[in-house]
Each structure stands twice: as C-alpha cells, then as structure tokens.
Amino acid sequence: MENKNQKILIIGAGLCGSLLALRMAQRGYQVQLVEKRPDLRDVTQDAGRSINLALSDRGLKGLRLAGVEEEALKLCIPMLGRMIHDKQGNTFMSNYSGRENEYINSISRPGLNMLLLDAAEAMPNVEIIFNKGCTKVDLENAVATFKDYNTKEEITYKADVILGTDGAGSVVRKAMFNDRNFLFSFSQNWLTHGYKEITIPATENGGYRTEKGALHIWPRGEDMLIALPNLDGSFTVTLFAPYSNSDYCFDTLTTPEMVMAYFETEYPDAVALMPNLVEEFFDNPTGPLGTIKCSPWSSFGKACLLGDSAHAIVPFYGQGMNASFEDVVVFDEILNKHDSKTSEENDWKTIFHAYEMTRKKDTDAIADLAVDNFREMKELTATPLFQQKRKLEMAFESQFPMEYFSKYSLVTFNEDITYHEAMTRGRVQDKVILNLLNDGRLPDSMELAEKFKLVKKETTEALHDDAVVGNL
Ligand code: FAD
Predict the structure, then answer these.
(1) What is the full DSSP assignment across 73-110?
(2) What are the structural domains of the chain?
(3) Distance from the CA of 140 to the center of ligand 1, in angstroms?
(4) pLDDT tens column, 135-155
(5) How remote is the CA of residue 13 from the centroid of ligand 1, in Å?
(6) CB-ligand 1 contact for 15 (6 Å cutoff)
(7) pTM tops 0.90
(8) With a 6 A CB cut-off, is 382 part of the ligand 1 pocket?
(9) Residue 383 C-alpha to ligand 1 middle, in angstroms?
C-alpha cells in the first residue's frame, strides 16, 4: 500500500489498538486512535486492584516489531511454571518447559497499555482522542460516529479505512452484523463459568506472601483459583466458578458466611493470604467468559477487525492479548507483501482478505485450545496421569531440547509456527503420550531415549493417519 498519506481511524485504544496505532504510524500512515474511556494515564489507578496478564513469546514478537519489547520486559515478572496447591495446602511446581529459557511473564494490563499509548503518542502522525465512544459505523464510507462523554455531543470522523480494535463487545463488528449487504457469520459461546478478581496484598514490607516466580493454581475439578504476581508484591487472584447448578457457584455464594465456608473448605491455604477476601468478593464484579468467532473480518475494503473484536477467547491459555499482538505482526507482514505489488493488488480490500485468509484458522485454533485448557487447568493438572505426562515431557524437553516441544511449548514459546500447527501437532502428541502411559508402555525401567523414540514414532504415525483422513 504505497499511499501513506491515507488516514487510518483505529477504534479502541486497548492493548491491540495501541500497538496497531504505533505500528501503522511507523509505516507512515496518518493515524487517529479513538477510545471511549478516559486516558488511563490521567486516572488514578485503584491501588488495591492491579489486573495482570500472562505475556509470552507471540506477544513479545509483536512488541519487538514496534520497538517496545525492552521497555515492556521491565514491567514483567517471569513465571517459570505452575505452582499447584492441593486441598491440604501441599504445593508442587510444574515447570512450563524443560528448556531453561522458556517461561511466561506476568505484566500489569494498565502498565502495558500506558507504555503503548506513550509510544504511539510520541509519533508525530498519531492523534489519540479519549472519552469518545463509537456508536455507529457507516462501513461503506469509512465514517464512524462517536459520543463525547464530556460534552454529550455527537461527532463523526471520516477516514480512508477503519480498523476496529474495540474488544469483545465491538461496535464495528455489530455494524457488520447488522449490514444486510453481505453475509456475516457470527457465533458467541459462553462458558457455564464466570470469573471474579481478588487480591493477595503485599506483606507490610512490600514482600510476596507466596512464591513470586510462578502462576499459582488451586485446581478443584469444577472450579479453580489462580494467582499471578504484581511488581508491588501483591498477587491478582482470579476465581473461576460456575454461575449455577453446583454446590458452590456464584448464584449461591450470596453471604459472607457462605463465601468464607467455601474458601475455607476448598482453598484453605489461599484464605490465609487474602485478608480482604469477603469485601472484595462482594465489591468486585463477576465477569462472563466467552468465545466469539466471526467472518468476514472486513467489509467493502473500508473496515477490518483485529484483536478481540474479531476473535475473543476464554483466558485459559493466557493467549488473548498475545494473539491480538500477533494479529499486528501478521497484518504487518501482509502489508509488506502487498507493498511491492501492482496497484490492483494492493488495495485495502485485497489486503484485508489476504489477512483473514492467513490468520483466521489460527485464531480459531487458539480459541479451541483455550477451551480445552480450561479443563486441563481445573481438573487434569491434579490427576496422576496428567502429572506423569508433564514429568515425561519435561524430561524430553530437557534431554532433547531441539527435538521435543510439548503442546504448551508449541503454543506458547514457538512464535514462528502457527497456532493451527501447534494445535495439530500438540493434540496428537498428547493423545499418544497419555495412551502409552495408560497402557503401561512407558515403564520406569525404560531408558528415556527409548521412550522418546517410541513417542516420536507413534506421533509420526498418528499425524500421518490424520493427514490421510484429511484431518490436518
Ligand atoms: P480490549 O483490551 O478489550 O480493548 C478494547 C478497547 O476498546 C478498550 O480500551 C475499550 O475501552 C475500547 N472500546 C470498546 N468499545 C469502544 C467504543 N464503542 N468506542 C471506542 N472505544 C471502545 N490474554 C493474554 O494474552 N494473557 C492473559 O493472561 C490473559 N488473561 C485474561 C484474563 C481474563 C479474566 C480475561 C477476561 C482476559 C484475559 N486475556 C489474556 C485476554 C486479553 O485481555 C484480551 O485478549 C486483550 O485485552 C484483547 O485486546 P483488545 O485490544 O483486542 O481488546
């Protein structure tokens, strides 16, 4: 796309929109970024609630592309593995990888968003406008209407193209849904579970009340608690529980006594770390968890969706933000390819179409993997067979670091293969190892190299079988 004087209107200055604005400005476009909320950097953050996210290699690749990886890493706390807490308060660490350099990072959501806003704002060709919520989009003409939350006035902005990064409840996507001039497919699937955030505060001298370098999990079958560390010594804890139809669910946890009884029964060691548990339980909202898929992501060559607006996923692989940053990388690669083409091949319609063709199968894959991982985290991490599998995979990764990558590693640490490929290989490998373990074909007496040879052979055969029946 040679004409860099074009105006790009980006709607939504969250994680994806801010990174995208920065990258599009670096490519030379005139960027207008409009956000419905007030500027995060002016609003005092609630000291008691620091929301954090797991940032891993795909997300880091996006930040690197825009030259902000180093700055972001300063906000990160490495988490080397899952620290599993059983009901008796025993803990054990299950590393994310057998390779030493593979870990995920806990990062503050507002901290990262502010860093991206600062970097975008430093570009001379970016204008950022806050407090204006998009209410309507004229897709054919790339015109969007906003309501100013201060003056209550309506204002319209026209651009050459609109990029919708307005999250899971996207107004840009709704405009596509309501437009009868093209066929728009949409699905929204809610989990039966919701989530609620609680805090483990820092100790009086600013220290951590439990192991800092881990993602803590209390798996309890139907429900679970997780905790990620913050730089100030606190942890953000998230409870995932059913809304209804269970002994303990959001619909029945309605009194302080019930909440305390539930936590004391299920998470006794965590209760001791959360002095404000009851207040926070009732003060903080319960959020729903859902998967959104849609297609096409673009309309009339004038508007395109990126990030959660195109593919919101449940948080159990810690990949929503990472996938949204990877969107920016893939979109950028498509722009690079089309830059060198003739004018007929580098119009926005062609570019948006090529982007979706390249990317959609991967965001569908991570959406499905994230739902699978919900089960793995809340149930399987606590089962002996699963723990045996992780132990074996850890040994393979440590002994054969260039040859073996678990599904988790393929998804999280191998940013140069697609999510779809990671899913395909990872699922087959999991099935093979679990079956071999279950059938007693990987006994303790067997050499690790022999076990590895057997797993590799069976995986290759299973992948071949899948290819024959057209599953790949
Ligand atoms: P958002 O971050 O939702 O940003 C959208 C922006 O658009 C917001 O600033 C919003 O105010 C603005 N906006 C909305 N509507 C309008 C409008 N009408 N007009 C103007 N502006 C508008 N991902 C990970 O990678 N790792 C994790 O560990 C992780 N943990 C998670 C835990 C939970 C509980 C949840 C719910 C999600 C988690 N995610 C995680 C997913 C991650 O939060 C999202 O994938 C990511 O925020 C998507 O970025 P986005 O910019 O597309 O959307």
Answers:
(1) HTT-EEE-EEEEE-TTS-EEEEES-SSTT--EEEEEHH
(2) 7-43+56-63+109-187+289-372 (3.50.50.60), 383-471 (no CATH)
(3) 26
(4) 999 999 999 999 999 999 999
(5) 10
(6) yes
(7) yes
(8) no
(9) 32
